[in-house]
Amino acid sequence: MNKISLKFGLWFLGAMLILEMSLFFFLHTSIVDSRIEEELAALQARGNSHRDVLEDSYKEETFHHIAVMEAKADTEVIITDQNQNIIITSSKFDNEEQKIITKEIGKVPRDGEIMENRWKSEKYISTITPFKINQNQKGYVYMFRSTDQIQSLISRLNHHFITGAIMILTLIIITILFLSKALTKPLIRMKLATEKLSKGDFSVNLPDMGDDELGELSRSIKILAEDLKHLKEERNEFLASISHELRTPLTYIKGYADVSRRKDIDETIRDQYLSIIFEETKKLSDMMKDLFDLAKLDKNTFVIDRMEVELCSFLNSICEKMLPAFTEKGMELAVECKKNVNVLIDPMRFEQVIFNLLDNAIKYSEPHAKTSISVKRDKGMVLLIIKDEGRGIPKGDLPYIFDRFYRVDKSRSRDTGGSGLGLSIVKELLEAHEGTIEIKSEQGKGTAFFISLKELP
Ligand code: ADP
User: Which of 15, 100, 120, 277 has its CA 20 to 30 Å from the CA of residue 358?
Assistant: First the structure.
């Protein structure tokens, strides 16, 4: 038996024992008391009926008649005169009886009284009834009943009680064993499950435990296991992607640096190699910056400083900054936003969101393609749509497009050269703004991003 069931069982057993014992004690005393009372009342009634007979016919014959009657019964009678001198006894008269009939008596009520009721210590219980002849007190009828019979009656009763107590106790123990198993089994399963979790084994297999608190706990543990598993997988994937992403530029850098070190190399080729090294280093440092941002977003240490911003003028100013990049590639950028739309954003972070999306529009579009930004309002929400006429994203890639390091073109083309972190940063930044982002894209036609934010009244 495990510790918790033992503890639970002992507490329960203790409580039940106290309950059972006090109940039995109460029951036993009240049964015994009422039994003795009944016996005494019967004895007194018998004495009273002898009195009636005596008062009816006070003669020798009646005495004998009473004595004979009692000799055949379980009770005994002693009739005395006014001075407690024995007139007749129904059986052999002994010391104990002598003690009782010589007891000083005061005025005894007509229906008699109890002379001895200490059934545990004395040999007899006894009552006394006075009788009168012609209105004069003539004597007393003493009734006796041996306490042996009562003792044996009580011991029979005790025997019943003990048998009952043993039966109930057995039942209680069986119930405790059953209950403690039923209660502690799921707890122990959960304990083992969490131990497994802490050792890094996430294959938690807990059965459905119903709707009570135990069920809720087991569900929470299952959710926790799934979350931990997911986290671990994500971390492994993330580390694998990082090392993969770092390896490519580093290989370039190492290779070109190695060649550039040679003495016999042409100066122009060396310059070319050095600029490749410079480009790759720049990409690496950009990636490091992005990763750092993501790590900060993850740790929730990322503070966004939100303020009320008028979205249209804000977008127009970003577009102005970005326009040269578009025109350089022969592309067009249009902002469609005339309304006075106020939102609560961190301007620096939100600029990064728009910048990442517009940068992608440039990277993944052919010259002369158009990109547009439009703003719509809908039921207290602001919908910001950034749409391009670029190469689009295949349907199969769309669900993963916001994942870290996810790129449609897996072979890292050196001219576009993205790290696959841009969109995941966009998503996390928007979530920090309590906003959402959705994507619609058709291969060969273009991509549209739908950002939704709360509008300030
Ligand atoms: P990257 O730095 O590679 O651009 P992102 O996270 O910004 O990383 O984008 C992930 C991938 O999604 C890109 O590699 C690209 O294939 C695809 N993508 C993103 N934006 C667009 C877009 N506007 N048009 C077409 N493809 C896009």
Answer: 277
